[in-house]
Structure formats: structure tokens, C-alpha cells
Automatic annotation (TrEMBL):
InterPro entries: GT87
Subcellular location: Cell membrane
Record membrane topology: Multi-pass membrane protein
Record keyword Transmembrane helix present: yes
Name of the molecule in the record: DUF2029 domain-containing protein
Domain of life: Bacteria
Signal peptide: none
Record-annotated membrane-spanning stretches: 33-52, 178-196, 217-239, 245-268, 275-300, 327-345, 352-372, 378-400, 412-429
Family membership noted in the UniProt record: Belongs to the glycosyltransferase 87 family.
Pfam families xrefs: GT87
Keywords noted in UniProt: Cell membrane, Membrane, Transferase, Transmembrane, Transmembrane helix
Length: 450
């Protein structure tokens, strides 16, 4: 029987995946954040992967590249973070520090352009001078597309190095395109890494498409250029290296992109990689400390307070359903310690990737950060670990993001994701306990997926 490579079924699945990514970009660009669309298309993608009759890594990577193209045709949609990335890289190339200067600082007026500062030319005065102020306004300013332009950057040193390298090769007239292209390339590279690693472990490489063909990844990498995609790559690289020191180095670097990867330290066996990870993270700040001094923390303390993490006033959405603000932070801390101890107890009893997956996912469910792109590393971890039920967490985060301001609704949405995870884990380890409640091909797909 003749059958042309890669087969009509597989080609159709790739085209549908690209259509899902395109739909995510269009939906986000011309309406509100595509919460229901992302949920629906991700579930569809889960089913489509079963029909992709190929184990070709090349085809998986090509499909991932095609899925990133729609995002590159549009300016960042889900946030304005990419404009801050561009600015931070440009500031460092000029010899200044984004930790010690805010974007509206007139001392950096020569770095302005019409894309980042549509309302300020290099010769205009903003009225902002001097080092960052503790009481600076946190509001956006219509004169610039950079968010919170009167406070310094929040991003750690490895993220800053990434911004600088991209800025070096991106002309000012390209705006955020250089970062979008870099993020898309990282997403495609991670697809290849996941597919190769799954094959090496004797598992079906098709499941790498759950990352590479995901409309979420298309929306947050090629479109929004979120640096979380770099953190995801470094995490997966760390978990697929055989040398303990290299695992620690990469995990520490991931923590110096976004702080959340440091939460995975309890899941890493042995003390040496933990020590290397912490040392790498701290060492990354040394060059900036020499330049910015005590300002090296940037806006991080203010960000934690603004987002409600410091007092529990507006985060911990699931806990907020049953606890007053003053108790949420304490309970979240107790849960965090319990999760860390549980991760330590799982050494040698399950693959490290599995521990990292549930530890990262549980952290997101406890803290429920406002921004759904924080869940990008969790998607990659879910693929590597073969625990795809955890993708419910970033999906719920998008739905909650579109419900911002409705605290109870946000909490219930996050609680629904928790229930999906708990039920699926119960089905996997204790199928008889819930066999009368849930059955059928969808449940079996979730349980047996990778």
C-alpha cells in the first residue's frame, strides 16, 4: 500500500495545529484574552496528537516552527512586557544599568525612539530625574509603551543578559520583533529537545507537540516574547543533563531568568547540584551589584507587594475562598514547606521530572500569580514528565486572567484546575476509587498519555 510521507492524516493534524495557533493570535488581538479558545484548542490538540501518525522529530519541529509564525506577524498581545525587555537590553548596551535607572529618566533620553516612546522624543523632558524612588507611581504612562515606567526593572541577571544579546542584533526600528523571533526560536528548540529526550527514554516523541504545537506557546513566545520560554528551556536542559554540576548550573541560570525555577531545588537529588544552582544564581548578580549597588534588587520588592504576595491581599486565589487575607500567607507558607519536604521524600521513588512537575504546578496553584504565562515551564515539565493533567493549571490561569477583578470567580476557576489534577492522579494510582465517576476514552488518554 502506497503512503506518501508524512501521510495525509499527519499533514492535516499539522495544519489544524497551525490553525489553532493562528486562531489564538486573532482571538487575542481582536477581542479579549482567548480563555475559552485556548482551553478548547488545547483539548483538541491533545486528541489530534493521537492521530499524528509519525515519530519524526523533524516533522514535530517543523510543525512547531509553523505554529510560531502567526505570532510574529503581530505586536505583543497579552502584555507589554516585551517593550521593557527591549528597553533593558538597550540600556545595558549604552553602559547604564536598568536597576539604577527608570525608563522615564531624562538621563537616558537619547535612548528613546518612537516605538517605545510614542509621546516623548529624545529632546523632550519627562520631568523624571535621579535614582529610582521608593514612592514612585506604579501607573503606566501614555507617553511610553513600557509598563510601570517610573520604577526600575524586575528581571534577574540572566534575563538581562538575554535582553542585551537580542538588543545587540536588533535595530531600534524593529521594536520587539527581535525578541519575538528569539522567543519563537527557543520554543522550537525546546520542541526538538523534548522530542529527542522522549525518544531516548523510550517514550512516544509525538507528545513533544503538546508543547511545540500549543496555541499557548504560540501566543506567549512568538507573539508576546515572554522570557518564561527561556526559563522553560533551561529547566528542561537541567533535567536532561547527566552531570550533577551542569544540572545545578542550568537550574541556577533558570532561576536568574525568573525566580520560580528555584522552587524546584528540593526535587533535585544530592546536595552538590543544589549548591551549584544557588551559587550560580547569586554569582549572576555580582556584576550588577558592582554597578547598581543596593539598587540591584530593582522593583522586585515593590512587585511582590503590588501583586499581593507580601500580605496575601490579592493572591492565593484558592485559599482566598476559605481564608481571610491575614491567614493566607501563613497557610501558603506552611503548604510550601510541606511540598518541599514531600519533594525531598520522593528522591529515588519517582523520576526527578515528575517531582519537578507536580512541585512547580502545586506552587502555581498555591500562589495563583496573576499572569498566566508563568505557567509556560509547567507545560514543558508536563510533557517531559508524562503528567499532562498539569496543563489544566496554565489553562485555568488564562481563564482567571480574563476574570481579573472577580476574586471568587478566579478562585473557583483555579479550584477547578486543582480538581482536574487531583482526579487524574487518583485515576492513575487508584483507578478503582473513582471508576464509577469518570470513565471513557478521555480519562484513559489523560492517564496513559505519554
Amino acid at each position: 500500500m502506497k503512503r506518501s510521507w508524512p501521510g495525509w492524516t499527519t499533514a492535516l493534524v499539522v495544519l489544524l495545529a497551525v490553525a489553532c495557533s493562528t486562531g489564538a493570535i486573532i482571538t487575542a488581538a481582536y477581542s479579549w484574552y482567548p480563555n475559552l479558545f485556548l482551553v478548547g484548542t488545547t483539548i483538541l490538540l491533545l486528541l489530534l496528537i493521537k492521530f499524528a501518525r509519525t515519530r519524526s522529530v523533524l516533522l514535530l519541529v517543523a510543525g512547531a516552527a509553523l505554529c510560531q509564525v502567526p505570532g510574529l506577524t503581530h505586536a505583543p498581545i497579552t502584555s507589554t512586557d516585551a517593550y521593557r525587555y527591549v528597553w533593558d537590553g538597550r540600556v545595558q548596551l549604552s553602559g547604564s544599568s536598568p536597576y539604577s535607572h527608570v525608563p522615564l529618566d531624562d538621563a537616558l533620553a537619547k535612548l528613546r525612539d518612537p516605538i517605545l516612546f510614542p509621546g516623548l522624543s529624545p529632546t523632550d523632558r519627562s520631568g523624571v530625574v535621579g535614582p529610582p524612588r521608593a514612592d514612585a507611581p506604579l501607573d503606566d504612562d501614555p507617553r511610553t509603551r513600557i509598563n510601570r515606567p517610573q520604577v526600575p526593572t524586575i528581571y534577574p541577571p540572566v534575563a538581562q543578559a538575554y535582553f542585551t544579546v537580542v538588543a545587540l542584533f536588533t535595530p531600534w526600528s524593529a521594536g520587539t520583533f527581535g525578541l519575538q523571533l528569539a522567543a519563537a526560536a527557543i520554543a522550537v528548540a525546546l520542541t526538538w529537545l523534548l522530542a529527542v529526550e522522549l525518544r531516548r527514554r523510550g517514550r512516544d516523541p509525538r507528545w513533544a507537540a503538546l508543547w511545540g504545537w500549543s496555541p499557548i506557546v504560540a501566543l506567549e513566545a512568538g507573539s508576546a516574547a515572554h522570557v518564561d520560554v527561556l526559563a522553560a528551556l533551561l529547566i528542561i536542559l537541567a533535567l536532561t543533563r547527566r552531570r550533577a554540576w551542569l544540572t545545578g548550573l542550568l537550574l541556577g541560570a533558570a532561576g536568574a531568568v525568573k525566580l520560580l525555577p528555584l522552587l524546584l531545588l528540593p526535587a533535585i537529588p544530592r546536595l552538590r547540584p543544589k549548591f551549584v544552582a544557588v551559587s550560580t544564581f547569586l554569582a549572576s548578580y555580582v556584576p550588577h551589584l558592582a554597578v547598581a549597588g543596593t539598587l540591584v534588587a530593582g522593583f522586585l520588592p515593590g512587585y511582590l507587594h503590588q501583586e499581593g504576595f507580601s500580605d496575601g491581599s490579592s493572591r492565593f486565589a484558592i485559599l482566598a475562598l476559605v481564608l481571610p487575607p491575614e491567614a493566607r500567607q501563613l497557610v501558603a507558607g506552611v503548604i510550601a514547606v510541606g511540598l518541599a519536604l514531600l519533594a525531598l521524600s520522593r528522591h529515588g521513588r519517582e523520576p526527578v521530572a515528575v517531582t519537578c512537575c507536580w512541585l512547580y504546578g502545586a506552587a502555581l496553584l498555591v500562589a495563583t500569580p496573576t499572569y498566566p504565562w508563568y505557567g509556560l515551564p509547567l507545560i514543558a515539565l508536563a510533557v517531559l514528565a508524562g503528567r499532562i493533567e498539569w496543563i489544566a493549571v496554565p489553562l485555568a490561569a488564562y481563564w482567571a486572567y480574563a476574570s481579573f477583578g472577580h476574586d471568587v470567580r478566579q478562585g473557583l476557576i483555579q479550584l477547578a484546575a486543582l480538581l482536574v489534577v487531583v482526579i487524574t492522579i487518583t485515576l492513575r494510582y487508584r483507578p478503582d476509587a473513582v471508576s464509577r465517576l469518570i470513565s471513557g476514552p478521555t480519562a484513559r488518554t489523560l492517564i496513559r498519555a505519554p
